[in-house]
Design a protein that fits this description.
The chain is mainly α. It folds into two domains: 93 residues; 66 residues. The chain is built from five helices and no strands. α4 runs antiparallel to α5. The radius of gyration is 21 Å and the shape is extended. 6% of the residues are buried.
């Protein structure tokens, strides 16, 4: 191998660190979501006795939505960093999530689509709970978008299954 080729490969390999700020940014976004979550939770706590049942359920679903998005950001941040930048050196720490270090790019796609479908389902449920104030066209769009996410998720899973069966994964 020539010295030029070795130097080039060295720099290409080191360029993976350019991705680190993206993944760190996702983890910092969780902090922003936490602030929003605490604000929503405090608002719910202060008004829970005056809210109608539907409003209470929508407020709780908004909290669930925030938690799902935060979990999604953590999975993408951790897995992306471990897959593309560097292994996270936690060793065998007792609190290390079971999926860390085991989620490959294919698994990450499936987890991402699963989380998107779940978030979409929560948004759809919120719209149906508040159906009286929602135009039918808006509901139709939400159902269509949700079904698109569901079909996309299934197609991702089928594609990965076919690829895995052929052994070209």
């Amino acid at each position: 191998m020539s010295k030029i080729e070795a130097t080039l490969e060295h720099w290409v390999f080191r360029s993976r660190w350019l991705l680190a700020p993206f993944f760190i940014g996702l983890l910092l976004a969780v902090v922003g979501l936490l602030v929003k979550f605490v604000k929503q939770l405090a608002s719910l706590a202060m008004t829970m006795f005056t809210l109608e049942d539907e409003e209470m359920i929508v407020s709780i679903l908004t909290l669930v939505d925030s938690a799902l998005i935060a979990a999604l950001l953590l999975i993408i941040g951790f897995s992306g960093y471990e897959n593309f930048v560097s292994k996270i050196g936690t060793g065998e720490h007792e609190d290390r999530p079971a999926w860390m270090g085991r989620v490959g790019f294919s698994d990450l796609k499936i987890k991402l689509m699963g989380a998107i479908v779940a978030i979409s389902a929560v948004e759809l449920l919120k719209a149906f709970i508040n159906v009286a104030g929602t135009p039918w066209q808006h509901l139709a769009w939400k159902v269509g978008i949700h079904l698109t996410f569901v079909v996309s998720g299934v197609l991702f899973a089928v594609t990965d299954w076919i690829t895995e069966r052929k052994g070209t994964h």
